[in-house]
Amino acid sequence: MTSILKSMTEGMISTDLEGNVKLMNRLAESITGWNMDEAVGKKIDNIFDLSSVGENEDEYLFEKAMNEGLVAGGTNKVI
After folding, report:
1. What does the pLDDT look like over 36-73, one tens digit per residue?
2. What is the Cα–Cα distance from 22 to 73, expressed in whole angstroms?
């Protein structure tokens, strides 16, 4: 899985169930401004803005996806 994630042409970040970054590819590093070594172990919402846009801007997409068991995404963000 690590080689697949790293070879993807879109920015991808892998987290554990608590939202701690486990792995990210080079495009995700470029998008977030964080390199993987710095990001691993940090909360996803500390390195990438996942706040939802619309009804409830205080609700984070990661939390919504984990709490509701859903795939959540904005126009260019998918969890």
Report:
1. 999 999 998 889 876 554 555 555 666 766 677 655 45
2. 20
Query: Of 52, 51, 3, 46, which is closest to residue 23 (Cα–Cα)?
Result: 3
Confidence of residue 35 (pLDDT cuts 50, 70, 90): very high
**Rounded (5°) CA angle 5-10-40:** 50
Cβ-count burial of 10 within 10 angstroms (0-12 exposed, 13-18 middle, 19+ buried)? exposed
This prediction's pTM: 0.65
Query: Residue 64's closest CA among 56, 75, 72?
Result: 72
